[in-house]
Amino acid sequence: MSADWKQAVAGLILAFAAIFWLNAEVIRFTVHIWTYNETYTHGYLIFPISAWLVWRKRSILAKMRPRPEYSGLLLMLLCSLAWQLGHQADTMVVEQYSMIGMLAASVWALLGRKISKQIAFPVFFLFLAVPIGEAFIPWLMDFTADFTVKALQLTGIPVFREGTFFSLPDGNWSVVEACSGLRYLISSLTLGILYAYLTYRSFIRKLVFIAISGIVPIFANGIRAYMIVMIGHLAGIKYATGIDHLIYGWLFFGLVMLLLFWIGSFFREPEEAAPEIVRETAEERQPASGFALNSVLLVAISGLCGIYSIALDKIIETPHPVMLSAPIIPGWESHPGPLYDWTPHFLGSKARLSFHFEKNALPVSLYIGYYRNQHQDAELVTSTNRLVESRDPVWGNIGEHSRRIRMNGEEIPLIQARLKSTNHRLLVWSWYWIDGKWVSNPYLAKILEAESKMISRRDDAAVIVLAAPYSNTPDEAEKTIRAFLASSLPGIRKMLQGAAGEP
For the purposes of burial, counting CB atoms within 10 Å of the CB of 41, is it exposed (0-12), middle (13-18) or buried (19 or more)? Predict the structure, then answer.
């Protein structure tokens, strides 16, 4: 190994160590997801595969000489800024992607543009280790339900559908998160991207195969769901539930992937010849300088980013307890506790308030979850905080959409949902209160949380949930909620401002 390579490798070890120190919590959380969520267990394989892809290039890399470039430091700064914003907004996925970006920036800064180009795909492949995709689950569930119901109707079987729940003459079915097909989609895309890189040279062929790898599992999951329902319909539900339907699903998915790769093999292109190494100039033959400086700067950027985040967290942290009291609503009689047996599934709040009110025998429930000193597993906006827990045995979400209403001269963006249990139906309105603003979009909420923490040094936020029952149409419940909100909105805002210590 040449002296330049020894300096570059030593610098990478130092830079990577600093990045891993900064992201110790990110790494712990990511490994936890890989371990306990079957959808993302492939994450354990991504780094070894990336290392193997680099090893395949060893004969080419041995003929090249690393040349440190200061432009890589600019990318490091940008990734550090993104990491800081993600950290302050408690958005783990931004921190995870920023960490991979920091690793890529270190490679660029210490090895140079030419070598970075040679190992660009192995470095890009590391981004697939980030466990993402849960935002697509509602859409995938709806598509699977649409596909299954349409296929059943074409088969001649009568179906009654409510959201992702549907009933056949001989039983009731529902598309739950585990049946959304997300794990099939992620597995197929990961394998498809790797297969396209190893098999094709043409960018168009790679792109087409990757696109097909994303489309095929979505439709395959719809076919799988239809087959499982048909097994239950023809042979009995006991043969289509429990562990059996998971086995059917993975066997079917395996056959689909084998068929996909078999068809893709017909369009295989010969392996790309090793590029000719251009003769080095006299200047390039000279020993490179700047390894030590770039290494120190990379470590410094990571260290300062971590120190700043620790200091900011200490400044923001508020030791005072949160006090919430039910607002007095003129004309409405209050009762502690939720309406029926349903409570929104929001975890990690510092304080919560759950009351139901009545006026003229019309009930409505109010739930407020208040968050302060937010951190991982105790934050307002997260995929695990929702109106109904994914495995709730009683309640189910049969559809939701965003809307805006005007109330007392102000506009409130909210999410309107319909919930069902065996005996009840609820219309639910929910939205966030962040830095004195009403918000319903979770991405905008994360941005406002980061802005509030960076500027005003506070992270107080809350979720407001209103619910009213209905029997025939949700319109009757909407009238009740509107009447209650018109009377209660000023009191709710005043209570939230008081809890935050605002005048």
Answer: middle
Using CA atoms, how far residue 332 sits from 324, 327, 337, 412, 487, in Å, is: 19, 10, 15, 22, 9
Q: What gap in Å lies between CA 292 and CA 295, rounded to an integer? A: 5
Phi and psi of 294, rounded to 5°?
Answer: -65, -40
Q: What is the mean pLDDT of residues 298-308?
A: 90
Host H or E run for residue 328: none
Closest CA to 399 of 373, 424, 425: 425
d(CA 6, CA 44): 28
* Helix or strand (DSSP H, E) at 307: helix 291-316
- E strands within 118-263? 160-162, 165-168, 171-174
The beta strands (E) that lie in 451-503 are given as 461-469
Proportion of the chain in helix, strand, coil states, percent, rounded to 5: 55, 15, 30
Give domain limits for the chain: 3-132+291-316, 134-265, 333-500
Cβ–Cβ < 8 Å for 370, 348: no
287: left (phi over 0), alpha (psi -120 to 50) or beta: beta
- Quote the pTM value: 0.83
Residue with tokens 């935050």: 500
Residue 420's SS3 state is strand
Please answer whether residues 449 and 90 qualify as being in contact, where contact means their C-beta atoms are separated by less than 8 angstroms: yes
* Residues 422 and 394: beta-carbon distance below 8 Å: yes
- The HSE-up count of residue 340 (CA atoms within 13 Å, CB side) is 19
Helix (H) or strand (E) holding 18: helix 3-22
pLDDT tens digit string along 322-336? Answer: 878 877 888 899 888
pLDDT, tens only, 119-160: 999 999 999 999 998 888 889 999 999 999 999 999 988 888
Minimal CA–CA distance to 373: which of 317, 432, 325? Answer: 317
